UniProtKB/TrEMBL annotation:
Protein name per UniProt: Ribosomal RNA large subunit methyltransferase H
CDD domains (UniProt xref): RlmH-like
EC number: 2.1.1.177
A Pfam family it matches: SPOUT_MTase
Binding site for S-adenosyl-L-methionine: 76, 108
Keyword Cytoplasm assigned: yes
Keywords: Cytoplasm, Methyltransferase, rRNA processing, S-adenosyl-L-methionine, Transferase
Matches recorded under InterPro entries: Alpha/beta_knot_MTases, RlmH-like, tRNA_m1G_MTases_N
Catalytic activity: pseudouridine(1915) in 23S rRNA + S-adenosyl-L-methionine = N(3)-methylpseudouridine(1915) in 23S rRNA + S-adenosyl-L-homocysteine + H(+)
Task of the protein: Specifically methylates the pseudouridine at position 1915 (m3Psi1915) in 23S rRNA.
One GO CC annotation: cytoplasm
Source organism (scientific name): Thermovenabulum gondwanense
Domain of life: Bacteria
SUPFAM superfamilies: alpha/beta knot
């Protein structure tokens, strides 16, 4: 299985980079991880809606260029479908049984995600009503992918 993570911006905090590296290592027996970082647009904290949409469009165009055409696209967004770890593992397993072996997860910037990206998604997935820093979301996503793989393989998950 191939897992691509397209994320806007770089992970700056060392503790997050170390956690990401740990889960990428844990995932080696289950899948190949490929992370693509697209440039985040600089914006003033008080950017008005028009400015934000223009920034999101620029980031979105970079994401669209990075997408693989035949990959199953999962966009992470607060308004997306909700799943438990078990139900998402079941969904992933069913997709794999249907022959899907290439998955792309898309994480937007601190301003969100360009609406056109959401329209290209095969699944819009919400992890919570909470807002998470987009850099931290990468670590949370990798942990969940690892958990899904353990559930699918019926292996114990050690916390």
């Amino acid at each position: 299985m191939n897992v691509h993570i397209i994320a806007v911006g770089k992970v700056k905090e060392r503790y997050l980079r170390e956690g990401i590296k740990e889960y990428e290592k844990r995932l080696l027996p289950y899948c190949k991880i490929n992370t693509i970082e697209v440039m985040e647009e600089e914006a003033p904290a008080q950017a008005i809606a028009i400015e934000r949409e223009a920034l999101l469009k620029k980031e979105g165009e970079r994401i669209l260029k990075a997408l693989k055409p035949h990959s199953y696209k999962i966009v992470l967004a607060v308004e997306g479908e909700r799943h438990t770890s078990e139900s998402m593992a079941s969904k992933m397993e069913k997709l794999m049984l249907m022959g899907i072996s290439d998955f792309t997860f898309i994480i937007g910037s601190s301003f969100g995600l360009y609406s056109e990206i959401k329209k290209t998604a095969d699944l819009v997935l919400s992890f919570s009503d909470f807002t998470f820093p987009h850099q931290m979301m990468r670590l949370i996503l990798l942990e969940q992918i690892y958990r899904w793989m353990k559930i699918i393989k019926k292996e114990p998950y050690h916390r």
